[in-house]
Structures are given as structure tokens and as C-alpha cells.
Amino acid sequence: MAIQRTFSIIKPDATARNLTGAINKVIEEAGLRIVAQRRILMTEGQAKRFYEVHAERPFYGELVEFMTSGPVVVQVLEGEDAVAKYREVMGATNPEEAADGTIRKLYANSIGENSVHGSDSPENAEMEIRQFFSQADIIG
Length: 140
Ligand code: ATP
Ligand code: MG
Known about the structure:
alpha+beta; 4-stranded antiparallel beta sheet; binds adenosine-5'-triphosphate; binds magnesium ion
């Protein structure tokens, strides 16, 4: 497996609790490198587009509202098998089901306010990175 990139978001529940550094520590200790990072306020349009696959789900409105409720940190992570590796480091969507030591087990408030996002496939990683970063922003 070659070096790969994935897209990460530190969500508003985590930035509100000043956990950016703590989460970055877990990411780096897992062997993933933060090669681009920016703190932003997502617009409603950006959040709707980002989570468009969930548009028909009952929690879509709540999810868009949450993602625009405060600052997020968008990131590009690089490493061996980065997409699957970061999903492992994040833990299950529902923190009650997340394994010990994962970011969501350590820090998530609930299934909705679950502290981080990570791409679920290399194809989606590429699209998600392109939504928030230009190639020049990414210093590998
Ligand atoms: P993400 O895409 O944010 O990395 P995920 O891939 O683990 O998370 P998805 O099924 O893609 O989970 O859901 C996207 C996001 O929608 C979740 O991270 C969570 O914030 C929210 N979400 C998912 N299921 C629920 C639910 N049942 N109730 C409220 N919010 C939910
Ligand atoms: Mg997902």
C-alpha cells in the first residue's frame, strides 16, 4: 500500500472544547502527517454540499446546522493507507461503539457531535480535499 491522502475535519464540538491540539496529537502519534490545515467557519452551502450523500437522511438538517455552528479545522492527512488508517484512529460513528483509544471514544459527545470526520474511500478523499484545498495549499 502506497502513501495516500485523506481528508479530515475537526468538528465544532471539538474546537469549542479546545481539543484541536489533543486530536492532532492522536493523529500524529498514529503515524499520520498533517500536510495541510485551516480553521474555517463552514457556510451552509459548503456543509450541504459536503454531506450531500446524506440529504435524504432524517438527521441531515441537524447535521448541516451542527457543522455550521462554530469553527471547524479542515485538514489533509498523509501516510501509509491513510484513508483506512484514519477511519481506525477516529473510531465508530457512535462513540458508545468506538474502540478504546480512538478519537471518538476519547472525545465525542454523541453520534451527532462526534468530534471528527474522515473520508470513507480514496475517491471521496480526493473530492473532499478538492472542495477545501488547492494543490498549492498541500505541503507534503
Ligand atoms: P463522517 O462522515 O462525519 O466521517 P461517519 O462516516 O462515521 O462520519 P456517516 O454515516 O457518514 O458517519 O454520517 C455522517 C455524520 O452524520 C456523522 O459523523 C454524524 O455526525 C452524523 N450522524 C450520523 N448518524 C447520525 C444519527 N443517527 N443521528 C445524528 N447524527 C448522525
Ligand atoms: Mg461518512
